[in-house]
Every structure is written in C-alpha cells, then in structure tokens.
Amino acid sequence: STQKPARPGFQTNEYADAQLQEIVKKLRERANVYKEKLNDPVISSPEASPPVCKSTPKKAPPPPKEEKKDEKKEEKKEEAEAKPEEDHYCDMLCCKFKKPPMKKYMEYMKLPDTIDSYTDRRYVAWLMLVTIAYNWNCWFIPLRYVFPYQTPSNTIYWLVIDVMCDICYLCDLIIFQPRVRFIRGGDIISDRAETEKFYRSTVKFRLDVISVIPFDILYFFFGFNPALRANRMLKHNTFFEFNDRLEAIMEKAYIYRVIRTTGYLLFILHINACLYYWASDYEGIGSTRWVYDGEGNMYLRCYYWAVRSLITIGGLAEPQTLFEIVFQLLNYFMGVFVFSSLIGQMRDVIGAATAGQNYFRSCVDNTVSYMNTYSIPKLVQNRVRTWYEYTWDSQGMLDESELLEQMPTKMQLAVAIDVNFAIVNKVDLFKGCDTQMIYDMLLRLKSIVYLPGDFVCKKGEIGREMYIIKQGEVQVLGGPDGTKVLVTLRAGAVFGEISLLAAGGGNRRTANVVAHGFANLFILDKKTLNEILVNYPDSEKLLMKKAKVLLKQKGKPAPGPPVPQPRGLASLFGQKQETPKLFKAMLGGKGREGLAKLLQLKKQQETQVKPQKIDLDFKQTRENKSKEKKQANKKTSKKEAKAETETKPKEDEKKPVEPAAPSAPPAQKEKPKEDAKPAVIQRATSKESLIISMTPSPRAGEGEILKVEIKEKEKK
C-alpha cells in the first residue's frame, strides 16, 4: 500500500499514521480470510467450528473382505511407521550404551537385485575378501607342495583355512557375480535374469567354475597333497578386477600401483625359491656345492639364493651336473626377462605419479632461463617464482582449464557446478536470471592468482570485466594519496559488476583494488557475457534493469548522518521547509554575500556609463548654438541666406566630423534644453538588464549551475 501525499499545510503524526496503517492491514487480512471461507467452505476457519448434528445420513454398505484386509495391512504399516523407534541398549559390566537395532544392520547388508561394480563400495569390499583368498592359494599351495611344512600334526589348520577360501569362491560364483550389471549397446542392463545369463556366457564363469571343482576329494586316495588345489589359482580375473576398482576410488592410485608391482617381484622370487628347493631335493640335499646344504631356515636360505640368482648379482656356486647347469641357465634367462620388465613397469608407475611435478619443474626452468637471457631484474624474477610455487601448491596444476578440456561438456559443467556455483550464486546481479545462463557462465570463468600487493585494477582504468573472489582478500584503496583502506573484501565478494553492462565500452574505475596476501579471483569479461546473453533475451532485460539501478545508486551522493527525530510535542509540528535552491544560490550559502556582490557589480557598471552621458550632453548643446546662429543670419538677409545655403555643404565637408560613441542612442527629436537632461539620465539607467538562469551540470551528481548575465538592450 502506497502512502498518499499529505495536503499542503497539513501536518501528520508519523507514529499515529503507522499505527493506523497497521490496523488497516490487519482488517484487510481478516477480510480476505472470510472471503476465502465463503468461496471455499472446506478451508479451515480461525474460529471454532460448530458442533455436528446428531442426525447422520445412512451408512454406506460395508466394503468386501479383500478391501478390509488391504485396509488393515495399510493401517498396520502406518502404525508401525508412527511408533517411535525403541531404544536398544547393550549391557556391559561397567556401562550401558545405546546401539542401533538389528533391522538397520539387515537393511544395510541386504544385497540389491543387481550391483553396480563401479560405484558400489560393498562390491569392492567383497572383491578384496576374494582377493585375499586367491593370494592365500597362490602363495601357500607351492610352498606346501615343495617345503615340508604341512605335517600330520597341523593338517587340520590348513584344511580349515582352505575350506574358508572355498566358501568365498562359491559365494562369489553364486551370489555376487550373477548380480553385476553390464553394458550392451550403450545401455546399462540391470535386469537380474539378463545379468545371470550374461555372466554364464563369459569365460570368467567357466574359469570360476573350474576353480571351485572339489579335487580335494582325492585326498582320500592320494593323501593330503596340496597340488590337488592348483585349480584355485585360476580365479585371477577377480584379482585384476579388484585392482581396477580399487585404483578408481583411491585418491593416490600410484601408491597402490607401486605396492602391487613390488608384490609381483616378491611373488616371482617366492616361486624361484620353491623351484630351487625342489631342484635341491631332486639332486639330493647337500649332495653338491650348488644345492641347498640343509642347514638353517630352509625357506630363507632358498629365497636368498633366488634373489641373487634372479637379479644376477653373482657370487653363487658353480653348477656341476647337467641338470644343475640347465636349471641355472633357465633361471638366468627368466631373471633377465622378468626383472627387466618389472623394473620398466616400476619406472612407468613412478614416472606417471611424478609427471605433473616434472611438468611444473620444466615450466619453471624454462621461465627462469628466459628471464636470465633478457636480464630481467631479480625482484621480478622472485615474484614470478613465488607465483609458480603458490599456484602449484594451491591448485596442484598451473592451468585448471587444461584438465577440463579433456572431458565432455556435460562433465565440465558438472565439475564447474560443484566447484564454483555456490560462489556465483551469491552475486546479486545474477539473482533471478536463467539457471542455464549461469551454468554457461560457469564454463567461461577464468581463474587468476594475484600476489600480495598486486593491483587488480587501478583508478581511472576502463572497466571491462567483473571479479569474484574465490580465495583470499583484496583491499579497496582511496583517500587523497590513494593509500587509505576503504573496505576489505573477502571470499565470495564481487566487485566490478557494473562494468559488464555499462554502455560506451565500459566505465572508469573509481578506486584502486590491491590484493592483500595471495588472492585467487574469477574473471568474467564483457565480451564473454554478451556472447552468452545472445541466447537468453529475458535474462538480458533483467540484467539491464539491475544495471540501471546500480548506476543510479552509484551516481547518488553518499548518505549523510541520520536526521534526529523530534520528541515530545515537537512531533506534532512538521519540519521547517527547505530553502529553495535558487534563493540559496542568490544568497551564496553564507548570509547575503551573493546578493551584495550582485549589487556591487551593478554600481560598477553605472559608473562606467557616466562618461558616456557627459559626452552626449556636450554634443547636444553645441548643435543647439549652431542652429540659433543660422536662424539669425536668415532674418538679416535672404540673399545671404541663399549664399549660405550654397556654401554650407562645402563648409560641412571641410569641418571634421566627431566620431560618435558606439553605444550612443539614435537621433532624437528636438526638445528644449530643460527637458533634455533628465530624459538622458532615465534612458541611461535602463540600457542594461540582469539575466539569471539555472542549467544542469554536465557531471553526474553535481546538481545545477546558477548563471548571472548582464546584457545590453537591443537598439530600436
């Protein structure tokens, strides 16, 4: 509701007026409530509803039994949901603590119909369990087969662990692998029947089935021979799948790659140690200098020999028999091939892990070399190094756009929304605009790092971009010397937004903005915004309206101190009206100095006109005397008058003509001497006029300019 302007000469009490407006507002709200009640009687009223009459209509026919059962089930569900959760406590000897109910555990552990192998962490955890079982079989089956570590006294322990590993294999074959989703023709198949059918048609299913065949039954015929469990090592597909899934969810996957490559090397040495003990047992323990002599820990001694032989360190005993020579040659060949491939793989893993750091160092070295070539000052070189170091430490890369360019546009947008949308959404200039326009703008933002003391923008520059503070602080400087801190802007603040929509190529900066510490800013230039707004005309209109409002607010002078409100009886009388601007200009601001100056100027002009008046009076008297002489001569003799008339033009030509004043009035009719002087004085005082005018100032915010002109009247 807009307030009506008060009548001239009528004063109102602000407090009473506010109270009356509040009462009117409440009455209107109440009237609207009753109007809605009349239009729609279902709407609840603030008043109490009347009691229901006892006379009720006839009852509807009872629903059938099936509907009753369904209703009862729904009521039971609603009651179960409405009941508060019971507290479950676990009693201990010294304390009693609360624990969640078993239902929540069961709901969380319940497997879905299908599993997404890329995002489900429970599937990755299960693959880790199966991988542990697979590594147990790979490491201990050769060990138990070659070394005499499995004895009748500890066979039961080996069998228990073997059974646990077999259970993991069976659960993976029956429960988990048939539920894994797959991609067919670009579509993700999540139907349970389709996933089972697909799994059974793969090679992985055949290998998994072979790996769980219970050849352990042959223990009853051939004794407890671990070689009968060699088929368990065929489940290698699950092991490699676990490696891929784990690397996908790890932040620093190269660490796991190094550990995995080291594990490959240790496993190959383990197999070589087992083969060396088998060859020694075949030749006879201690039979020659080359074989194991049977002293010390058999596994460690054989492992030591495998390391020296496979890595080709040397210093081993020379083989003597043909079997020993052939075995040693094969060992050397395998060692050169395997060890070189593992070393190369390790080099690739470490190189990939440090590729970013190497790129950063190469950029710094090239920049430093360039600066040294052109003899750049040390101060500038230090600032460049500081920028490189801070940018790399804060972002992990020099340019974020290089990483995002490799992704599709949709993924770039998703990353930009998660990183920058919360900051851009705080900008008042873009509130109410199309969300898709803001998304397009996020992809165009450029991130720039400023060092401490760097000028983001300087006073007087043409502004063509807007800045959004992502991290750090900036200071706005002003004052006579430009060093006074007017305000400090922190993360999430925006400045320079008016420059985006200002006409005429941008407006000038009104202050210096300096980075206080390291500051990371987003920049959006005017050209980029115009390219985006071409596709969003509604948002463009809204931004133009907001820009006009911001420009008006910028042009207004800063608000002064609040005017104190009168108290007591003084509030009944209105405030004194302000002096008109024209009258203020006449007075000059202090007393009546302005008006006094105007009067003094007019007196000076009158004194300049007096000499002109004296010259005019002298000329008129001279002309009158000459006329009298001419009349006397006419009376004496007509002939002389005729002669005078003939000779008069010649005399007039010979006589010098006195120059008339430039400001002299036109020739006047003849009048007597007494009337001539006052008439001249009256005309002299009215020659010039005073012109006062008000013109708007060419600069915004300076109001109007008063002009006073003294102008001569035009000649008639």
UniProtKB/TrEMBL annotation:
Transmembrane segments: 123-143, 155-176, 258-278, 329-346
Catalysed transformations (reactions): Na(+)(in) = Na(+)(out); K(+)(in) = K(+)(out)
One Pfam family per UniProt: cNMP_binding
SMART domains: cNMP (SM00100)
Gene3D superfamilies: 1.10.287.70, Helix hairpin bin, Jelly Rolls
Cell compartments where the protein resides: Membrane
Chief location of this protein within or outside the cell: membrane
Domain of life from the UniProt record: Eukaryota
Membrane topology: Multi-pass membrane protein
Biased composition (Basic and acidic residues): 64-81, 612-631, 638-657, 668-677, 701-716
One Gene Ontology MF term: cGMP binding
Protein name, per record: CNGB3 protein
PANTHER family tied to this protein: CYCLIC NUCLEOTIDE-GATED CATION CHANNEL BETA-3, CYCLIC NUCLEOTIDE-GATED CATION CHANNEL SUBUNIT A
A GO cellular component annotation in the UniProt record: photoreceptor outer segment
Location of the Cyclic nucleotide-binding domain: 429-533
Biased composition (Polar residues): 683-696
Any Gene Ontology biological process: visual perception
Residue numbers spanned by region Disordered: 35-81, 603-716
Keyword annotations of the record: cGMP, cGMP-binding, Ion channel, Ion transport, Ligand-gated ion channel, Membrane, Nucleotide-binding, Sensory transduction, Transmembrane, Transmembrane helix, Transport, Vision
